[in-house]
Amino acid sequence: MKLKNILAVLLLGITLACSPTQQEPALEKLPYFDLKSFINLELSKIEGDSVLKTSVINGEEQVADLLYTSEDWKEELAAFYEADINVPALATAYSTRTTPDQLIHELLPESKGKVKELSIRYVQNYPSWVTFKIKDENLFYSTTTLGELFMNQATGKIDQYKLETTQKVLFLSPTHIKISGFIH
Asked: How many CA atoms lie within 13 A of 75 on its CB side?
């Protein structure tokens, strides 16, 4: 009898552990520039293209000519996915300014969010340049990431990208990372 009770509890535990987790409800209408969809669309255009990648970590430079799969590209540009601000918790956290050729989302002073600014410049009504600033800090560390993505107007594809991160952990020297890629 005890064995049946133990098996029943284990079965219940496995069932609950394997059931899908509840996610945040999706927004009906996205309040900000849809960076995630934009990156996904643009990555589909460069699959099979090579990239001349330069990585500089604390002054040590490495250069490589690489061929990325779509999964490699998603990993390489993960910071751009992190800079997407279209989540329900941030629906009213940003101010939006526009000029004839630019869209700028800035985190409101009273709001909490890691993405401080997301800026999109347009040429002929299509994004030609995307930049962001992410900053996160607590008592023990701080990290700042700046990202830029440039479109080639002739090909309609991503031309180059740049990521720069500075991380500072309490009692340690800061780590500076710069990554740039030129797609060819």
From this structure: 5
| Main-chain dihedrals φ then ψ at residue 124, nearest 5 degrees | 50, 45
Confirm whether 62 is domain-assigned: yes
Domain of residue 96: give its range. Answer: 34-183
Q: Check whether 32 has a pLDDT greater than 90.
A: yes
Look at residue 140 and tell me if it is in a domain: yes
Domains held by the chain: number = 1
In a domain, 2, yes or no: no
Q: Which pLDDT belongs to residue 29? A: 83
Mean pLDDT of 117-140: 96
- Per-position DSSP letters for 75-126, written without gaps between them: HHTHHHHHT---SGGGTTSEEEEEETTEEEEEE-TT---SEEEEEEEEETTE
pTM: 0.83
Residues 6+ apart with CB under 8 A from 84: 34, 35, 36
Q: Are 175 and 155 in contact, with CB atoms under 8 Å apart?
A: no
- 65 domain-assigned: yes
